[in-house]
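Thread: sanity check for a docking pose with NAP

Original post by kr_44:
Hi all, I'm comparing my docking run against an independent structure prediction. Below are the sequence and the ligand SMILES. Could someone generate the full complex and paste the structure tokens? I mainly care about where the ligand ends up relative to the chain.
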Amino acid sequence: MSKTTRLDETIEVARPLNEAFAYISEFNRIEEWDPAVAKGIRLTDGPLGVGTKFRIDMKAGFSLYYTVTEWEAEHRLLMTVDSKVFTAVEEILFVKTPTGTRIRYIAIFTFPSALTLLAKTFPGVMDRVGKSAVAGMKRALEDKQPTPVASRGVLLADKLLLPGLVSFTKFGYRRARKKQNPVSAYLGDRHAVITGATSGLGLATAEILAARGMSLTLVARDKAKATRLAKDLIKRSGNPRIQVEIADLSLIGDVTAVADRLLKSGKPIDALINNAGALTNPRKVTTEGLETSFALLLLSPYVLTERLYPLLKQAHGGRVINVLSGGMYAERIHPDDLQSSKGSYSGSVAYARAKRGLMIVTNQWASRWKKDGIVVNAMHPGWADTPGVESSLPAFHRLTRPFLRSPEEGADTIVWLATATEAAKVSGEFWLDRQQHPAHILSRTKERAGDKQRLLDALAEFSKKFS
Ligand SMILES: NC(=O)c1ccc[n+]([C@@H]2O[C@H](COP(=O)([O-])OP(=O)(O)OC[C@H]3O[C@@H](n4cnc5c(N)ncnc54)[C@H](OP(=O)(O)O)[C@@H]3O)[C@@H](O)[C@H]2O)c1
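Reply from moderator J.T.:
Ran it for you. Here is the predicted complex with NAP included:
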């Protein structure tokens, strides 16, 4: 004979009904709030609703298969659960209160007869597991994570080469992930502009933000590829607010044109993600006469961001995320040779110097725009297995493949900087895996007297030529 057991827990949270519903109904994100869950995966495409399926991998080593059977937006979710251990019906009820939302979580578990012994001990265990899940849900929705501070351990690991390099791999990501907090910020009224969203980290970022309901503008150079991608994202996420702007970002004329179109649209930008990039070897000059690494990786994000400043300001808390690289640690800025025309050319050096330059610009924007509430940060993704890495560094890719992160893991800090409430409390920093890292680990890469100003003057001068 089968045995059933019931869980019934209620919490009150100071979050509007629509925000609480949006976060909890994206049920794969249960991994952020239920300590018993290892990973949540959404198995079906399209808008969330009746028929949506999730697979929830438990830390105990088995998986739960959820199917949404009833869906009343901002009111009620009913899901059936299948697994090797038990079946269940889970109901989540949402009610608006004067101070926020009341959430009631009811679950009825049924154990097959062979497991009735387990079920006899189960109510107590289940009660504890259920209570800690619901407490986690409350904590996640309260969204009061501490302001991030630099950790001495992280700074020390960066100084010691090997631990620093291990942190670039998937093992570094997995270690850092254990300490990460949920991000329940509501994105349904926010807009992000992402460059380089057709591949790798940019694509992973777009997929995550689209699923969370953010309005997206994808800036890409290949119209057919970008249009296909936007269609696919809309279909898979059920989020129709995804548009495309076409620009070859190594051409400053294209950058100014796309910025002007965005300015004309007047839509505030909550997050500008300067991600597009490539490692160029041998030296290449654009049709505008600029060395490609400098044009694409430094001057382009500089011009785009400077021009989009009014829209970032209008967002009241606009954020800029500059995607840099750990390669930056090897180079200092050479403001008198921004186009790598002196001596022999190395694509990796030109790339690292351009990223170094954007770090300097990140600091400058952070202090200049503090008064406007604009937050500017830089990050590096570690080593992620993307088409860009495979094509530009084939030998490195072959050798390190088992240790590379997935694009989603590399993009995690981009998404966090763009969306987490606590990430907006720190500006002008360099991040990996949601942790602050120093911008330099070698004293030889530090800027020499006057270098920062020379760089900023040169960028302003170049940008004037194209305006
Ligand atoms: N993956 C890593 O381990 C790693 C490590 C350090 C830093 N990064 C940085 O992360 C960012 C993303 O790299 P990824 O690894 O995801 O590379 P990826 O897979 O090659 O993606 C690069 C993206 O940038 C776009 N792009 C390149 N040149 C462009 C141009 N001229 N105009 C417009 N878009 C352009 C590409 O568009 P197409 O699809 O049209 O080519 C693509 O969408 C880059 O800034 C890179 O420097 C990556």
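Residues 43 and 210 are 16 Å apart (CA to CA). Hope that helps with the comparison, let us know if your pose agrees.
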